[in-house]
Amino acid sequence: MGSIYYTFILLIAAAAVLGDSNEERPPPGPLQLLMSRPTKKQIDDCMTENGLTKDEIKPPMEKKEPTEKQLCFHKCIGLSTGVITKDGEIVIDKIKDNISRDSEFPSSVVDELITCLKGLGEKINACEDMKKIAKCVPKPPKRPE
How far apart are CA 43 and CA 48, in angstroms? Predict the structure, then answer.
């Protein structure tokens, strides 16, 4: 279940890295709502810091668990965008700001997300801890066909 959420993170990062900054970006995915949209420099810095290439942050076609490097990349993005502090605290107010800016989710879903994040009670210290955040992310709303 968690792997689908990481696919959204990788998709967001890949769009930011591979897309031209002047191009219009697609609507945000659910995990992007949690994190401010990273700049190309933040993404490049986090890729370099974690030894990742552009291909390694593209979403895989098959649903796979993220690698340790990918988890560390996402932690780095969270730190660089201010959603996670250096002490590993999740900055709920920053997440609320991000959600209010881009949200397609009903307020009840947002309330559940915030309650879940507050209930984690643990800091995001290790890269593996990024999986805790993914468990709180709501499923994306279904788009009409």
Answer: 9
Residue 83 burial (10 A CB sphere; 0-12, 13-18, 19+): buried
| CATH code, domain with 85 | 1.10.238
Is there a contact between 117 and 133 (Cβ–Cβ < 8 Å)?
yes
* Strand locations in the chain (E): none
- Which token pair is 91? 């900055």
pLDDT tens digits for 61-111? 666 788 899 899 989 999 998 999 999 999 998 888 877 765 666 778 788
**What 3-state class would DSSP assign to 72?**
helix
Asked whether residue 15 is assigned to any structural domain, the reply reads: yes
How many domains, the chain?
Answer: 1
Q: Which amino acid is at 145?
A: E
